[in-house]
Amino acid sequence: MANVGDTVIFKHHVCTIAEKREKYFDNKDYWELHAVFERSLKLFVACDAAKPPIMRPVMQKQEALDLIDSIAGAEPADVDDNLPATANTSSLKQRHMKETYDAYLKTLSPKDLVPIIKTCHERTLAREENGHHATAVDKKYLDLAEGLLCDELAISLDIPREEVQDFLVKRIKEAEAKLNE
């Protein structure tokens, strides 16, 4: 059960429950949510619809650390292996990648942001090694997935949002070193 003052994830937004509005719309009670990182954003969700995965508690600190530690061994999204045999045009490949990334995003799970991040990062590194830039699709989804994950991790780990990425990189390198021992 959620309460006024709780910090929750609504869809992919980190929010504080500001108030409960009784019989606010269609004779239903609604939670008024204020986005933590998008200061002007207010969201409303019917109390009876405020259940996982639509609205859930922020990850606990240990859950967040476990998720970060899993990134080193995580599998990338399966964007290339699922291409239809007729997929020889770049626009078809781009559309397939978008659909794959969107499917991960729709789960509303922070764990499903990891394959997006891993795939986009690996594809970008491979393209850069060949003298190319990241694709617009990879850049868009990498920025989106990293932003969503970092927002929640900032709250879960109780560190400033701008320090989360450095924390992630350091912790992932430590996890990779342990995997390679």
From TrEMBL:
| Highest taxon listed in the record's lineage | Bacteria
Name assigned to this protein: CarD family transcriptional regulator
